[in-house]
Amino acid sequence: MPEPLRKASSALTRRAPALGAAAVFVLAVPQIYLLPEGRIDIALTTILTGLLAPVLLLTVWRGAGRSLLRTWLVRALLGLLAVRMLALLWSPEPRSGLQPIVVLSQFVIMVALMAWVLRHEPGLVRRLHWLYWPWVAAEAALVVLFRVAPGVEDGFLRSVGGYFAGHNTAGALFGDGRNNVLDVAKSGGVFVNANVAAMFLGVNGLAALALAVLTRERWLRVLGVALLLTVPLTGSKSATVLMVALPAAAFGIQRMSRAATPAMRRYLLTGSLAGGTAVIALLLAVSGGLREAMVDAFVGRTVIWRFGAEEFREHPILGLGFGGWDQGFEPYAAQEGLYRSFPPHNVLLAAWANTGIAGLLLSAAFFALAAWSCLHRLTRGDGDQRLVPYAAAAVAWVFVQGMGENTDIFGDIHLIPILSLLIAYLIRPAGEESKDSATHHRGDSATPAVPAVGDVHREPGGGAAELPAAVRGPGPGADHEESRVG
């Protein structure tokens, strides 16, 4: 190979992880489904991840791969992926297992990639300002527009919705595959399920608040609050409650972790919990419609879950396998007067139905290990602990709302990049600093946009770290879908 070509190839290989990470963030909201109706729905992000996977995994393995494999959370993800593959052996419709296996693989790769990014390309966090957040803001704007103008949403879904939700999904939306976004009291933006759209906005709102703690950019905090305030416009009842409870809890925990005395920590914790509970109680008391809608939704879910409980007594170990739920639910639905095809609407119940008790335990372990990682980071005393409460709240949102929705352990494919980034922060090895080391120095490198906080504020506890201008920024202030893959 000629020397210039060899050098170019080597440089491209070195830059592939950073370029791949940037690309998946750009495509996170639109996704882009190019194959026409009648073919399998596969998102461009899934294709891109698959094409780059060998280079990405090789680079990550040379970097943080070994330390990642020592992380129990990553082991749980790999175990769950293996169990999903094994479940194909006893599944009545193995083809229906393709989507959850492929997209979980995408999530695992993204977690590994984001761990590499935090170690070698910390400046990507600042580049999210134009790579990712404008798209999230656009999704929020669409939710607002479609809520006040349902006719515009109908036209959007009929004309170009297939490019963002999958052409098979969009084609079935006005036929046998109807979804709640068609309700005039709901709005989903590029999503065909308004509840999933609410999860997307809520998790991203908390993620923005988490990253704003590091970058100290006021506009990012404002965006985070705006995203959270947009959640009720989706029409999701459970998400509206989470929009109040989780940010309040995160704020209280963050302040508590910085308090100087145990008494002050107890005061802040009690105050935040009491305040959040009071606001939720007031919200439910004032809005009788919201309260009644939540009760109706819960009662509807329990009818679905009763089928799961009956089947669990019959098949506790192996579950139903991929496609087994749909086969068994149709006669049950006819008996109960329900729509013939309802998914489990519970992330853990779905895990058992598809992969058996092993999948259930590993899914539960993922969330438990994420919670443990949050607690570990909060007590470790390094600088990144300041974002942990909001990152923990984001993961908690995925779990809590997922207990009543048709989502996966990562929520939805749109959430994979940002949730992977937050997970990467949570499992970051102790003492690892954000750096642009000499072995990874480029000609256009500068001081990392998000340096290790330990470089600027080495001691735990209260007090404001003085960050460089590159981190503070120029602004003021101190501060679903049987044939679908993706």
Automatic annotation (TrEMBL):
It is a multi-pass membrane protein. Residues 225-362 form the O-antigen ligase-related domain. Residues 434-444 have a biased composition (Basic and acidic residues). The keyword Zinc does not apply. One of its GO terms (cellular component) is membrane. Keywords: Membrane, Transmembrane, Transmembrane helix. Its main location: membrane. The chain crosses the membrane at residues 16-36, 42-60, 72-91, 97-118, 196-214, 220-246, 267-286, 349-375. It is found in: Membrane. This is O-antigen ligase-related domain-containing protein. It comes from Phytohabitans suffuscus. The lineage of its organism: Bacteria, Bacillati, Actinomycetota, Actinomycetes, Micromonosporales.
